[in-house]
Amino acid sequence: EAKRTGRGRMVAVSAALRAQWRDRRDVEGDLRRAMECNEITLAYQPRFSTTDLSCVAVEALARWTHPERGSISPEVFVPIAEQAGLMPLLGAAVFEKAIKQCSIWQRQGLSLSVSVNVSPAEFADTNLVPRLLTILKKYRVDPNLVEIEITETMAMGDFESTQEQMIALRSAGLKIAIDDFGTGYSNLSQLSRLPYTSMKLDRSLILDITSRDSSLDIFRAVTGMAKALGHVTIAEGIETQEQYDALAEIGCDEVQGFLFAKPMHPDAIPAVVARSRFDVADLKKA
Ligand code: C2E
Ligand code: MG
Ligand code: MG
Ligand code: MG
């Protein structure tokens, strides 16, 4: 399926809404209730180093299981929460859950980085960094273990405020990833002046690298550029061994995708970390 952004995504969201709810106020009501009743949980998807395939980080991904409608994708409910003005609240709940989980892993002796996605409304909040720091202090989690993911499109918003917010996050010790890179229209010279630490290359850039030479060339060029700028390169959405082989060959630093691990319950993470240096082939059988 194609990655939808902007207008296209809104059309997709409205279609999903029409199919599932008669009135958008119902959705908002449901979402408010879901947040109060803890129906929103987090799944964690491991990320691995291409050096030794050790698990180096996990990404927190919001999950909503509606009592009647079943599971609803964050691609649907995050934009709705954003429009309804609920995202600052939802985002704060997500961050606190992820940090609490990180502190549990920390106590178990796992030094795992946790990545949290931040929405435009949260990123625009000038109080974001102090709020995050309060939560990190509360759970005694090292800010170095936390990475904030903001999409390429968000990073290309108001340059001055993006830069300010990123500087604040970095001085507080948090890491920053540019998410979904390759789906927006970046001004590369502006992007290069922002102090992020890693670049997540979108699945759409990886989809046909094994069937089209030009796709492979593009991927190689983008990886080379990110590395030249000193960023960690992360490939998202790897589903096949062939894709992995091509990325590893190019020198991509880290990988995330269904080939290695799907988003999972936090209790399943320690076993993945323990299985450190394994063979990709073994994973496919698992
Ligand atoms: P994202 O941040 O780019 O997250 C990666 C998405 O790709 C996840 O979808 C993940 O399950 C999926 N994925 C990972 N590996 C593969 C693969 O090999 N193949 C395929 N086809 N997909 C793969 P998910 O969990 O449905 O989340 C979708 C998007 O919703 C996220 O994209 C992110 O933009 C947003 N999102 C999720 N949780 C949150 C949250 O807590 N806050 C905010 N602001 N946004 C969130
Ligand atoms: Mg992400
Ligand atoms: Mg992404
Ligand atoms: Mg995304």
Automatic annotation (TrEMBL):
Judging by the UniProt lineage, the source's domain of life is Bacteria
Q: Name one GO biological process term.
A: signal transduction
Keywords for this entry? Membrane, Transmembrane, Transmembrane helix
The record's Gene Ontology cellular component field reads: membrane
From the UniProt annotation, give the residues forming the signal peptide.
none
| Domain named EAL: residues | 24-277
User: This chain belongs to which protein, by name?
Assistant: Diguanylate cyclase/phosphodiesterase
Question: Which organism's genome codes for this protein?
Answer: Loktanella salsilacus
